[in-house]
Write a structure and sequence with these properties.
The chain is α/β, with parallel strands linked by helices. It is globular. The longest helix has 23 residues. The protein has one domain: Maf protein (Alpha-Beta Complex), CATH 3.90.950. The mean pLDDT is about 100. Helix 1 runs parallel beside helix 6. It has a five-stranded mixed beta sheet with strand order 2-1-3-4-5, sandwiched between helices. The protein contains six helices and five strands; from the N terminus they run H-E-H-E-H-H-H-E-E-E-H. Strand 1, helix 2 and strand 2 form a beta-alpha-beta unit. It holds the Pfam family CinA. It comes from Asticcacaulis excentricus. This is Protein YdeJ.
Length: about 170
């Protein structure tokens, strides 16, 4: 499946379930939202997305606490959690995807190498309770575009699996 196929399936499931989606993206710079909005009729399930490339934007638009950014860094599981939860709340959506990572070629370290990307998924239960998950994946350093494209695919796969499990 390519990104278009994944986005088509995600939107179809979201519409069938009466759910809305939002995104909070850093290293992908809106590519996940672009994949979703490339599909005709996306506005039935996708209402808005956030590109929060700077730490200040993560705090201002998504409510990511400055203390979490200072303690863990922008590329971390706690920040991915906070980004997803913040997007979910800000957009009033039912499902939010977040991504924050190091696409390179610079910015990597021993602890956080180029290719390390953290993903968050937050969702609203029928009773309104919010739950979230986060995970990390280190993609092979085959260049900035490769890491960003693979991050989009990873996030879309994860969203699709979540929606299938909820069906």
């Amino acid at each position: 499946m390519d990104a278009s196929d994944l986005a088509t399936d995600i939107l179809a499931l979201a519409r069938a379930q009466g759910r809305t989606l939002t995104t909070a993206e850093s290293c992908t710079g809106g590519l996940i939202a672009a994949a979703l909005t490339r599909i005709s009729g996306a506005s039935e399930a996708f209402h808005e997305g956030y590109v929060t490339y700077s730490n200040a934007a993560k705090t201002r638009l998504l409510g990511v606490p400055e203390a979490v950014l200072a303690e863990h860094g922008a590329v971390s599981l706690p920040v991915a959690h906070a980004m997803a939860e913040g997007a979910l709340t800000s957009a009033g959506a039912d499902l939010a995807l977040s991504v924050t990572g190091i696409a390179g070629p610079s910015g990597g370290s021993v602890e956080k190498p180029v290719g390390m990307v953290c993903f968050g998924l937050a969702f609203r239960l029928p009773d309104g309770e919010v739950r979230s998950q986060a995970n990390v994946h280190v993609f092979e350093n085959l260049g900035r575009d490769y890491i960003r494209e693979q991050s989009v695919m990873y996030a879309l796969h994860w969203a699709l699996e979540h929606l299938k499990a909820e069906a």
